[in-house]
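input
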Amino acid sequence: MTVHQNLIAGEWTGTNAAENINPSDTNEVVGLYAQASAEDAKAAIAAAKAAFPAWSRSGIWERHVILKKAGDEIMARKDELGALLAREEGKTLPEAIGETIRASQIFEFFAGEALRLAGEVVPSVRPNIGVEITREPLGVIGIITPWNFPIAIPAWKIAPALCYGNTVVFKPADLVPGCSWAIADILHRAGLPKGVLNLVMGKGSVVGQAMLDSPDIAGITFTGSTGTGRRVASSSIEHNRKFQLEMGGKNPMVVLDDADLTVAVEAAANSGFFSTGQRCTASSRLIVTEGIHDKFVAALTEKLKTVVVDNAMKPGTHIGPVVDARQLQTDTDYIKIGKEEGAKLAFGGELISRDTPGFYLQPTLFTEATNQMRISREEIFGPVVSVIRVKDYEEALATANDTPFGLSAGIATTSLKHATHFKRNSEVGMVMVNLPTAGVDFHVPFGGRKGSSYGPREQGKYAAEFYTTVKTAYTLA
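output
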């Protein structure tokens, strides 16, 4: 089997490889992917630093053409790349193809943004002086991505970094190197100069640490666990570098008595269980008022009985496997904790077998939970959801906000008054009304508050806040 190599200074390199295993069929090796060393990471950083002066002054048309080519190829290969994503991460094939399309759209968007770079010319308060305000690229950007969105998250970090004239050292999650390698290969063939994008696959403790330790990285954008995010922050402060963190969530979905029951159940099921609950925007706390509680739980339980958990590549599958054995163990540990804490296991919670060996887990629904239980306060990152009964809207809002996280929140209601109040008073970065908490557009800002995020928002035109630095120039007329 061919080894997919790292890309350093425009050259493919590396023979020490690890297997990429299919979580839907652990007998299948998706591919062999090189494992970079700390020295490889240092070489990639040096290559990015050397390439920065020329790329940062490159023409906007050159950047536009390269990003457009990448977006076009990703779209043309959406079925192939979607299948790769489904095999390496465990998302259902339709969802994986959808994520691939989104990655293409992100590159298309930033190809356009490359042609819309602009600044300001303003008068000075002093006579005969002009003031120009411009945005300039930051420098070498370190990109560290998670395993749950193997092509979309790399796209929404790499595309703006290149659009605004930065060079990149990119370390994907070691569980899902396939889609990241494909993006690097596509951009390389699209005409990126040597060293502008460097791909270093491997362990975070090796590659990631080398990136954190380097004084030559001007900014790091990271999506992953809260613990690792704190390490990124502390190392970045030491080096006086810019950093952007997207971390955990314990997102609430509030269901009020006046909600449309069908809408509420669909939103809750999608938010909590689809993508195997492995989304930072997933809603694992369902906060339900007394009048609708029993009807909602009954309807959601009936919905879960119809959900098909199976091989991600199999037609008709609604939910694929958990990503790997370690995450599966985390999920089952929390199911045990929930029982011990006194929550009622209303549905699921069992390991299941399918035609192919994989990490299959039933969607798990707890009721009679409280907001003080660990299953209601700690991010599980699996298909494990707890229902918390509350008296009224005021208690629901207070419970929703009673969390160290603040990424996404949803409300199911037909009341304009409550929807409007919730949008204003929910302590999160994104609010959904009668929609799943998971599912966001590529052209608007993404990010949260409190322990979920730090730094400028990602995506859309707001990405410029992180990937550029502002310069103010004065000229005597």
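quick obs: The mean pLDDT is 97.
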